[in-house]
Amino acid sequence: MKRGLQVFLGVFSLIPVAFALLGFLGGAGRLSPEGVAVDLDNQYRYFSGMYLVVAFLLWSIIPAIEKHGRTLFLISAAIFIGGLGRVVSYMTMGAPSQDLMVGMGIELVVPVLFIVWQRAVAAKA
User: Whose CB among 1, 80, 93, 102 lies 3.0–4.6 Å from 111's, allowing a Cys bridge?
Assistant: First the structure.
């Protein structure tokens, strides 16, 4: 059970790494070929850098995941709240691209799975 969670977290953490690097290096313009405002691009690259830190935090707790429930909860909460931000955008601005809709679904479901799974692993440890 612990090894499964460690593998899942390790694989899952590659998603924020990939999107963070794409956003950090490519900026918001990669999502909008018509161009974007400088401030929006700046903010997008900033948050891409923050997203990369989420992966680093996940990597730091994987070896002793049974001891890091609080940290995993905070990481999961950040991902989940980001997903809620996407819901607000969807409701106020309309549907984003299919990739971003999938991201929203992942951000609203997977963090809850992380928390439940980690608590089960911690209880067994």
Answer: 80
Asked if 110 and 79 touch (Cβ cutoff 8 Å), the reply is: yes
**Cα–Cα distance for residue pair 87/59, rounded to 1 Å:** 27
The pTM (predicted TM-score) of the whole model is 0.89
75 contacts 58 by C-beta, under 8 angstroms: yes
**What torsion do the CA atoms of 20, 24, 26, 29 make, to the nearest 10 degrees?**
90
With a CB cutoff of 8 Å and minimum separation 6, the contacts of 76 are 111, 112, 114, 115
Q: Which of 62, 66, 27 is nearest to 44 (CA)?
A: 27
Q: Give the separation between CA 9 and CA 62, rounded to whole angstroms.
A: 7
- Local confidence band at 35 (pLDDT 50, 70, 90 cut-offs): confident
